[in-house]
Design brief:
Elements: E1 2-6, E2 9-12, E3 17-24, E4 33-38, E5 45-50, E6 58-60, E7 68-73, E8 78-83, E9 92-97, E10 107-112
Length: 113
Amino acid sequence: VTLVESGGGLVQAGDSLRLSCVASGTLFINMYVAWFRQRPGEERELVASISSGTGSSIIYSDSVRGRFLVSRDNDKKTSYLQMNDLEPADTAKYFCFLPGARWGQGTQVTVAA
């Protein structure tokens, strides 16, 4: 199972970004998807997760609830993380995770004040 994240970039505080995570080599519809972020020198932090199938069960960390939206498109084997009202504290490298997959390269998000 391989994962490829994309969509990061340098933005201003208050801007939005949409991250994508494309999975290959797996029956995507049967897998939950989790999004993590990691700041330099820190552990990876769970940001959001979405359940398998229709994705009816979603969890957000307290730090992003109300600003971030996670979704999935099973036909495209892709999960999305819509990030709104970005803050400098959101600056990190973002990764997606599926059970049995290796970590991908991640995508860097930098939010300037």
